[in-house]
């Protein structure tokens, strides 16, 4: 075939798929100088049976392009994997081999592992060979500063990888083997050094220098600009990078490793996936590198492409709907790779194109820019559809696509990240996106003011949080507006500036304007603070002012004065023109968006999209936590993850009517630390769609992710769209129960943005309010609503409080086994009353407990008048002497842990005593008891006199019928929705959750029947009785049974309790 374009391959493949069977198709040019292997797979959306999809809908093509004259090691490896031997090969086995070989994630993992080995090798070699070299903006010693070494290694490899991509396009002297050929030529002579003699001149003198159309010493090599090839160390610095680091024939060298892969200059999409190294795969590999090295600190996780596409499509089409009046249902089809715009009018196509030009998008934790690239690609797909309606057809590789991308990168996309290396990779990723569609080489744009390094969450000045006052966002004061417009004009000029010297001039001019804008902003804030202080001074001086009120006003004045002092200090630091700008502030650096008078007086981004870091602030420095508390008082919590603060930050950066789309852990929806942000969202935004993945492993780690899309502004009533975990599970696992294998999840997620659409359902907006969010099947929410409407909280059924077990502060000291207990009593019978039978969480199961043969040493605190000991009134040393004489065996046992016991917080008057406890006698009365954690309920009725570990809860009651209801299927689904789910996936049965359970008081006959259940042998009968009590119909019963199928078959409960003791 002469035409091997994607559209042609897709049309031919469609014809084959009209026949039964599975296929591997091979296409070739007439001269057989190019082969394309295509493995097609049909993907259907969740509602595929209800609708008739277009012929190409959901057809996913895995492709491998090969030049037979020069196959790479990667090409040969894939061919070996799909080779079929023997005279009668098994078709099923051959199909499975092909599916495995064309698995993009597997190829990505293989490249990542090899690239990481290469990175480590290059970094170690640079450090060893250059002990005194100083590079980077701060001229730090490579061997003494790991960050500078890492950054230089990353930049070197990033530059070479970029050259491999443009080499594949033929932009390097028309030679697709330009780099290995350059190595051979440059090292022909003795003493030659490839880096010094070839790469340095290529990087810094050819690729970074405008030559007016003249060829370079390396032949026809383009001028690339874009700061990618700006020198980061002085001309006088001589770096020694040995030839062995680059030699294409040396195993493990840079050119050897990279030369083994097929670089492809096309962007894979959800329906077209190259089994080669494309820009998207490279972005994933770079992000994985950062994850492996920094995930524990930064909490970064690479978002699967199809999820990025879903988030981009949701926000973009909602934005377009707002600005064009076209419904989202009509806009969504335009985001597909193979969309047909016949449903649009010409006027609507024009409206869409105009609206696309106005959108402003920010990723506040941009990482490697996967979100921005995904959004950019969605914009391009919509633009292609709209232009097609106007008769302009921009085919794959069309110059128009590159022009549109450059336009959107320049005007629409912004990103911030606290890691400088992430910003470098993000810029590289956007540059590659431009290269993909460019037919001829042209200088790369400068992205310095589009993607910026800084703390985009907290916003700091010289490392200290920027002082906030009530007028946190400055209005349209003339001076400030003028400076914002000037900065915007300079940013526009800088974006396309090709001359290095002029770029330096522009940078200085932009920094000067930023200083002036910052000063004007701070002056405005200081003026506001000064007015408030003057008013307070008058109120304080008022002789009629009450002393108590005067004291409050004085404290307020002191706080305002401190803020004003710190603002003045920050102003001085920024105004020092000899120092680089020590801050990042959205209002200053993205002034054209935050303060633009052309945005209807409504400054801010149209869309904030991202995957903010999942890091607990409990591990952060106290100063940073204090700064977060000051900056975000409405959502502050000592236990919250950092992503919670990003929600409020994102809302702050949006214009009115703008949208936020994040993928974060779902924990903020239900647990206490999310209460603040839930309230902020309820008061300031409308939740539009939530996708709760729950326990489904979207990432390699268990993060319980959810996608949330919000609209800032007018809070609307009505309904919210959701996709529940249960719906996703049914689709992914095709109705099968149990744990979903990871490879099944990965395969299903590759088409998520298409397959998930049919799972969307509507629930009342009240379920995503200030209280815990309930992202559940609408039918299940009806069942739970029925329970709550008909029942009363357990705390109203039983007057006794739910209590917990004994908190010792050091279980290892106080818990002993039976053999030790017997030894103590044998030698000292009077110690028996202080050694009590003891039950741990792991000893509890449903309906019963096992004999654990463990005991607790219990000496109540001498502070308690009820439990007076012979040493209670003595001083410490005298008391210890009496204790050791009266209970020598116990004293000896506890003395083994003496230092820890003294230091513990939970102790009595003396180190061998327990903390105060007012309810020891409650352990001797009949009670319902249960462990704190479990995959299913573990409640039993205890009539024995014994103590519990602190993670066992109990309720003194003679209403045994409550026990049976607690162990029923209906209550299990309630636990799963309303109770906290910990990181291991287990339910947390804390007392305050259990006391809110809705109970119906049964009739005496029903109570008698309920009390007759003592094990799971009659579980069906028990469940039927509970369903009857709550008035469930047949459909609701079937739903509960489906949701709880297999819940009691495993050892999850016992495994969960291992963490408690």
Automatic annotation (TrEMBL):
GO biological process: DNA restriction-modification system; methylation
Coiled-coil spans in chain: none
Ranges where the TaqI-like C-terminal specificity domain occurs: 836-998
Domain named Type II methyltransferase M.TaqI-like: residues: 412-699
InterPro entries: DNA_methylase_N6_adenine_CS (IPR002052), MethylTrfase_TaqI-like_dom (IPR011639), N4_N6_ade-DNA_methylase (IPR050953), SAM-dependent_MTases_sf (IPR029063), TaqI_C (IPR025931)
Keyword Transferase attributed: yes
Protein name: site-specific DNA-methyltransferase (adenine-specific)
Catalysed reactions, semicolon-separated: a 2'-deoxyadenosine in DNA + S-adenosyl-L-methionine = an N(6)-methyl-2'-deoxyadenosine in DNA + S-adenosyl-L-homocysteine + H(+)
GO molecular function ontology, one term from the record: site-specific DNA-methyltransferase (adenine-specific) activity
SUPFAM superfamilies associated with the record: S-adenosyl-L-methionine-dependent methyltransferases (SSF53335)
Lineage: superkingdom: Bacteria
Cross-referenced PROSITE patterns: N6_MTASE
Entry EC no(s): 2.1.1.72
Residue ranges of the region described as Disordered: 43-70
Keywords: DNA-binding, Methyltransferase, Restriction system, S-adenosyl-L-methionine, Transferase
Pfam families with a match to the protein in the record: Eco57I, TaqI_C
């Amino acid at each position: 075939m002469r035409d091997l374009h994607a559209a042609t391959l897709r049309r031919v493949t469609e014809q084959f798929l009209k026949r039964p069977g599975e296929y591997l198709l091979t296409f070739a040019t007439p001269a057989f100088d190019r082969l394309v292997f295509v493995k097609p797979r049909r993907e259907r959306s969740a509602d595929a049976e209800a609708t008739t999809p277009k012929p190409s809908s959901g057809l996913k093509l895995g492709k491998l392009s090969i030049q037979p004259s020069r196959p790479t090691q990667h090409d040969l490896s894939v061919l070996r994997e799909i080779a079929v031997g023997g005279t009668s090969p098994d078709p099923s086995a051959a199909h499975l081999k092909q599916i495995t070989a064309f698995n993009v994630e597997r190829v990505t993992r293989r490249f990542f592992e090899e690239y990481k080995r290469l990175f480590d090798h290059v970094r170690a070699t640079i450090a060893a060979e250059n002990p005194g070299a100083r590079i980077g903006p701060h001229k730090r010693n490579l061997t003494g500063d790991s960050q500078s070494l890492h950054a230089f290694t990353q930049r070197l490899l990033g530059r070479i990888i970029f050259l491999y991509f443009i080499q594949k396009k033929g932009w390097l002297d028309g030679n697709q083997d330009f780099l290995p050929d350059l190595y051979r030529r440059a090292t022909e002579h003795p003493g030659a050094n490839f880096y010094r003699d070839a790469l340095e001149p290529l990087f810094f003198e050819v690729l970074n220098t405008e030559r007016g159309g003249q060829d370079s010493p390396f032949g026809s090599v383009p001028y690339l600009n874009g700061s990618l090839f700006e020198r980061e160390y002085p001309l006088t610095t001589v770096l020694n990078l040995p030839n062995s680091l680059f030699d294409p024939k040396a195993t493990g060298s840079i050119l050897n490793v990279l030369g083994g892969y097929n670089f492809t200059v096309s962007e894979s999409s959800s329906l077209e996936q190259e089994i080669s190294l494309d820009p998207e795969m490279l972005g994933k590999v770079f992000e994985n590198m950062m994850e492996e090295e920094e995930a524990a600190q930064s909490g970064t996780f690479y978002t699967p492409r199809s999820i990025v596409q879903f988030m981009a499509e949701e926000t973009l089409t909602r934005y377009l709907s707002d600005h064009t009046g076209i419904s989202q249902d009509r806009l969504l089809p335009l985001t597909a790779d193979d969309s047909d715009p016949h449903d649009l009018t010409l006027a609507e196509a024009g409206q869409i194109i105009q609206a696309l030009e106005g959108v402003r998008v920010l990723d506040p934790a941009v990482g490697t820019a996967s979100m921005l690239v995904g959004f950019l690609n969605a914009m391009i797909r919509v633009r292609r559809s709209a232009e097609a309606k106007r008769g302009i057809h921009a085919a794959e590789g069309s110059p128009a696509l590159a022009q549109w991308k450059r336009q959107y990168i320049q005007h629409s996309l912004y990103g911030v990240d606290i890691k400088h290396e992430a910003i470098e990779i993000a810029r590289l990723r956007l540059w590659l996106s431009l290269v993909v569609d460019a037919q001829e080489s042209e200088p790369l744009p400068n992205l310095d003011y589009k993607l910026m390094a800084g703390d985009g969450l907290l916003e700091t000045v010289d490392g200290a949080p920027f002082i906030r006052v009530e007028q946190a966002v400055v209005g349209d004061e003339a001076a400030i507006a003028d400076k914002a417009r000037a900065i915007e004009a300079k940013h526009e000029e800088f974006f396309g500036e090709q001359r290095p010297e002029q770029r330096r001039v522009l940078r200085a001019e932009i920094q000067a304007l930023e200083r002036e804008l910052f000063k004007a902003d701070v002056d405005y804030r200081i003026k506001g603070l000064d007015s408030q202080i003057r008013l307070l001074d008058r109120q304080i001086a008022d002789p009629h002012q009450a002393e108590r009120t005067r004291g409050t006003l004085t404290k307020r004045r002191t706080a305002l004065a401190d803020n004003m002092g710190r603002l003045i200090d920050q102003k001085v630091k920024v105004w020092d023109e000899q120092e680089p700008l020590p801050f990042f502030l959205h209002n200053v650096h993205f002034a054209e968006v935050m303060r633009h008078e052309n945005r209807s007086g409504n400054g801010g981004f149209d869309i904030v999209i991202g995957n903010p870091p999942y890091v607990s602030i409990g591990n952060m420095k106290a100063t940073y936590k204090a700064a977060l508390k000051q900056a975000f008082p409405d959502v502050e919590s000592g236990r919250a993850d950092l992503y919670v603060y990003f929600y409020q930050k994102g809302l702050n950066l949006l214009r009115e009517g703008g949208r936020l789309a994040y993928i974060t852990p779902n924990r903020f929806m239900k647990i206490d630390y999310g209460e603040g942000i839930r309230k902020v969202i309820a008061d300031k935004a409308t939740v539009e769609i939530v996708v709760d993945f729950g326990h489904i492993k979207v990432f390699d780690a268990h993060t319980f992710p959810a996608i949330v899309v919000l609209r800032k502004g007018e809070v609307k009533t009505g309904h919210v769209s959701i996709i529940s975990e249960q719906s996703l599970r049914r689709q992914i696992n095709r109705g099968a129960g149990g744990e979903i294998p990871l490879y099944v999840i990965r395969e299903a997620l590759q088409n998520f943005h298409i397959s998930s659409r049919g799972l969307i359902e509507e629930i009342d907006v009240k379920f995503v309010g200030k209280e815990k969010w309930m992202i559940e099947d609408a039918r299940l929410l009806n069942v739970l609503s029925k329970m709550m409407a008909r029942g009363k909280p357990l705390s109203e059924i039983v007057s006794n409080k739910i209590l917990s077990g004994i908190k010792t502060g050091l279980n290892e000291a106080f818990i002993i086994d039976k053999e030790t207990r017997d030894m103590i009593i044998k030698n000292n019978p009077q110690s028996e009353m202080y050694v009590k039978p003891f039950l741990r969480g792991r000893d509890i199961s449903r309906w019963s407990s096992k004999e654990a043969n463990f005991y607790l040493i219990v000496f109540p605190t001498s502070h308690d008048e009820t439990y007076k000991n012979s040493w209670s009134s003595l001083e410490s040393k005298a008391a210890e002497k009496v204790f050791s004489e009266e209970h020598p065996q116990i004293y000896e046992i506890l003395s083994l842990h003496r230092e820890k016991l003294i230091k513990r917080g939970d102790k009595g008057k003396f180190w061998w005593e327990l903390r105060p406890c007012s309810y020891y006698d409650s352990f001797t009365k009949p009670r319902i008891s249960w462990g704190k954690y479990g995959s299913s309920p573990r409640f039993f009725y205890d009539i024995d006199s014994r103590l519990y570990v602190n993670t066992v809860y109990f309720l003194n009651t003679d209403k045994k019928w409550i026990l049976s209801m607690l162990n029923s299927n209906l209550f299990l689904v309630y636990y799963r929705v309303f109770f906290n789910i910990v990181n291991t996936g287990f339910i947390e049965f804390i007392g305050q959750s259990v006391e809110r359970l809705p109970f119906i008081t049964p009739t005496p006959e029903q109570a008698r029947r309920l009390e007759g259940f003592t094990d799971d042998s009659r579980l069906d009968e028990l469940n039927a009785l509970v369903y009857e009590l709550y008035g469930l119909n047949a459909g609701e019963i079937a739903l509960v049974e489906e949701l709880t199928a297999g819940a009691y078959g495993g050892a999850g409960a016992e495994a969960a309790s291992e963490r408690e003791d």
